[in-house]
Design a protein that fits this description.
Oligomer: single chain
Order of helices and strands: HEHHEHHHH
Number of strands: 2
Strand content: under 5%
Distance between the termini: 37 Å
């Protein structure tokens, strides 16, 4: 079962990455007609991210090492991101909260998040993972832990920066400036990708690697689309700014 879901996520990552290079996912600034019925963007976020919180806990508690120190630490790291992403981030949206999102988007996201919660939630409480207290002093954990929280901080800072650009009730778009926004158009995506590669290294798992690759396949094409959109919409957009990786992409 685990291997089947793992391979399915890898295949989904490849297909999603290729598709998103040519078709912009129809939500946010790219929402458009022709994608079926729509729903509130705020509720779409809550519904599609909920399995990452709830299903993750369900699969986690089935494991042999659930409740042990290292697996609890991993559980806390995961929930730190997803409780915010599911229940806090949507409630703090400005402008886009009043928009509509095709029902197709949260429907597909729910399926992925259940599969991903199964892979990662069951892995970190699996006795075969070998997470004794000694794991906390391994290079894999230490490097991954640092990358996870560096990515987490970048992602949270970048989201706050974007939110602050809009006064309450304003649905417009503006050029973000300062910090990593001087180097790239999408530090929020850069931070999230870095975060989940950190998770993959800290857990040293195929489950974490599959998630990191899927995150990259999903967010990298969107970062390129955002970068192109900014340059087309704003004549004074900084010419030296890259899309996702400072000085590279």
């Amino acid at each position: 079962m685990h291997d089947t879901v793992y391979l399915s996520v890898l295949v989904a990552a490849v297909l999603a990455g290729l598709a998103l290079l040519f078709v912009q996912a129809p939500y946010g600034r790219y929402v458009r007609s022709g994608w079926g019925p729509t729903m509130s963007t705020r509720w779409a976020w809550i519904i599609m991210e909920s399995p990452a919180v709830l299903a993750f806990v369900y699969f986690y508690v089935q494991g042999e090492t659930a409740g042990e120190t290292v697996s609890l630490l991993f559980l806390g790291m995961w929930q730190l991101h997803y409780v915010h992403r599911t229940f806090i981030y949507p409630l703090r949206m400005r402008g886009s909260a009043a928009r509509q999102t095709p029902v197709l988007i949260p429907s597909l996201a729910v399926l992925f998040n259940i599969a991903n919660a199964y892979l990662n939630g069951s892995w970190i409480s699996n006795i075969e993972a070998g997470y004794t207290l000694a794991w906390l002093s391994t290079p894999m954990f230490l490097i991954g832990f640092v990358l996870f929280f560096v990515g987490f901080i970048i992602n949270r800072w970048a989201d706050a920066k974007l939110r602050a650009l809009r006064p309450p009730g304003d649905a417009g778009y503006y050029v973000p400036r300062g910090g990593m926004y001087e180097w790239i158009s999408c530090p929020n995506y850069f931070g999230e990708i870095l975060q989940w590669f950190g998770w993959a290294i800290a857990t040293w798992s195929t489950a974490g690697l599959a998630f990191a690759l899927f995150t990259t396949a999903n967010l990298a094409p969107r970062a390129l689309s955002h970068h192109k959109w900014y340059r087309q919409k704003f004549e004074d957009y900084p010419t030296k700014r890259k899309a996702l990786i400072p000085g590279v992409l």
